[in-house]
Amino acid sequence: MKTSAPSEQLTRRIIACLDVDAGRVVKGIQFQDLRDAGDPAELARAHAESGADEIVLLDITATSGERKTLTDTVRRAARQLFVPFTVGGGIRNLQDAAGIFDAGADKVTINSAAVANPELIGEIANRFGSQAVIVAIDGKRAASKPDQAEVWVAGGRRPTGKKVLEWAREAEQRGAGEILLTSMDRDGTSAGFDCELTAAVAATVSIPVIASGGAGTPQHFVEVFSAGKADAALAASIFHFGTHAIAELKQTLLDAGIPMRWPC
Amino acid sequence: MIAIVDYGAGNLSSVKKALEHLGAAAEVASDPLPIVTAQKIVVPGVGHFCRCEALNSRLRDPVLSAISRGVPFLGICVGMQWLFEGSTEAPETSGAALLAGQCSRFPTEVKSPHVGWNRIQINNNSRLLRGIENGSFVYYTHSYRAPVIPETVACTHYGGSFSGAVERGNIFGVQFHPEKSGNIGLKILENFCAI
What we know:
The complex is a heterodimer.
Chain A: E1 13-21, E2 24-29, E3 32-38, H1 40-49, E4 54-59, H2 67-79, E5 85-88, H3 94-102, E6 107-110, H4 112-116, H5 119-128, E7 133-140, E8 150-153, E9 158-163, H6 164-173, E10 178-183, H7 195-204, E11 209-212, H8 218-226, E12 232-235, H9 237-240, H10 246-255
Parallel strand pairs in A: 1-4, 1-12, 4-5, 5-6, 6-7, 7-10, 10-11, 11-12
Antiparallel strand pairs in A: 1-2, 2-3, 7-8, 8-9
Helix pairs in contact in A: 1-2, 8-10
Chain B: E1 2-5, H1 12-21, E2 26-29, H2 32-37, E3 40-43, H3 52-58, H4 60-68, E4 73-76, H5 78-81, E5 86-87, E6 102-105, E7 114-119, E8 121-122, E9 137-142, E10 144-145, E11 152-157, E12 161-168, E13 171-174, H6 182-194
Parallel strand pairs in B: 1-2, 1-3, 3-4, 4-13, 5-6
Antiparallel strand pairs in B: 6-10, 7-9, 8-11, 11-12, 12-13
């Protein structure tokens, strides 16, 4: 077994993400073209048992009318889940967040609502602690430099004019405990994470950065943890459809010298 | 019955869920009465140390008197830090001072909060950690940590060594979240339930 220096024992995390639409897990290509991948509670448990370090459930079409469906799904998924559980999608205010925590989530991610009302970050952090607030940033930069990457909201449908790096810094100052960075350029492409953008965000903030968007092969994870400086990496379809078992992925990462929780 | 002390900090439902999964009867207690009659007491908690003010103002006496009667006590995260004298996170808020020392922030050379899975080096004969392999991974999320003291039964290295678990008689504390540490965490909670 590989050993790491004492200060480097904190493992990098593999996070399995469930994109949920009306109570079912779906996965889209670049935020569109959804296909059904199963029951959220069953999948969450299966991913945790197969070695996922954390589970994220993102309600991708949340509207106020569907809030009860989401709460029920969270409650059902949380019941048999004994690893950290994060929920996002459509959380607009402190009450929404409180309802999600009450249903059994450990952390919430906020995205569009944080851009619209940045004070929400501090409100949730003050009530539930910074560790419970993840600010999700959907970034797009095409061929430009990371410092030009722009924040998009509303499920990747609307540009904001905000720069990703500036927004990440502000989110940290306002009390975010982690940043979940999704590369819209890479999401659903299986072309690999945007390591350059991830490394730029990791260098900008001192809180953990979760990289998302583009995972296709175990080598992509090696790259995002080394060149990308990510603290955690999130993926969805690579796990749901059995392309790569988490155990196999972690073995590849351990062989590459990346600290992982294993066995689990 | 295990009383899970509710003082407005942290995720009580996940601790309750984990204990119930293990077949234990657990009840969230925000008043002194269920604490007085409890067979075991758990003080969970995440977030700011100042939240312990609520614990100190209403529930400190019943909890401390139960501990002195030998009732097994488990503090989780801030609940463990509360066993110490205090924390630099909220200097005006006192801890129970059952253990010597102050909790303090991680040094600036490491990322803070310390979030994720890290190893515990088990260094004493512990009832709470019975059957847990040395070097097992547990889930942490915190920015302040307790010093290593004679009662430390497991430590973790991150910006230096800190107390991952403490134990003295019927007093137990873990900085990590056993309710979020997969099968290892469930085993630790099971050990506590069996004490």
